[in-house]
Design goal:
Strand content: 15-25%
Number of strands: 7
Shape: globular
Largest sheet: 7 strands, mixed
Radius of gyration: 16 Å
Distance between the termini: 9 Å
Bound molecules: guanosine-5'-triphosphate, magnesium ion
Order of helices and strands: HEEHHEEHEHEHEH
Length: about 200
Amino acid sequence: MAKWLFAQNCDFVTGAVDVEGLPTSDMTEIAFAGRSNVGKSSLLNALPSRKNLARTSNTPGRTQQINFFNLADKLMIVDLPGYGYAKAPKREVEHWKELINLYIKGRQILKRVYLLIDSRHGLKKADLDFMQVLNEAGVSYQIVLTKSDKVHATEVSKRKHNIELALKEQPAAYPEAIITSAVKKHGMDELRIAIANLLN
Ligand code: GTP
Ligand code: MG
């Protein structure tokens, strides 16, 4: 299923900058969330296995809207803007935080959030705050460690282990994290299978 799914067309649907811009949809939906620069857009781009299809995703860089991608009319994949971007103007940071929170709380069809954490940095306060939003909204989420190519493998597994220990306190968290590198294409099949299983 996963292999078939990610070999299908993945089309850009729309980009929302406010609640009114969120598309109506009855497909299963997943969203990629995390701090700015953690690698959300890169990971999303690396998911479809056919390279020409990856071009339909937006190019990496600071994502300034909530981007929606339709995979095979089966799954809506959502690329969220980053939270906690220290260099952005405060008003801008607040706007995105508010919109992301409204999206999380109000999106009935949202099946799971993939919460991306940089393999080098682990959980930060902004991540814990966002996990609280997910817990309160009752939205299931799974941690994905990104940029594993930047850190020694033993350090990444230690980080994964520590995060999984912390997740025991988090009611909405899936207990296991996935280690990935969008650059080296590590962990992509594991992530594809996890996502495809949501459609069963
Ligand atoms: P915002 O949209 O600003 O929130 O950022 P983002 O989370 O979408 O991150 P993006 O995918 O734009 O990647 C940020 C930077 O990290 C880019 O320079 C990417 O090339 C780099 N990057 C992303 N994934 C990886 C990875 O797996 N390995 C390495 N080495 N670099 C990565
Ligand atoms: Mg992005």
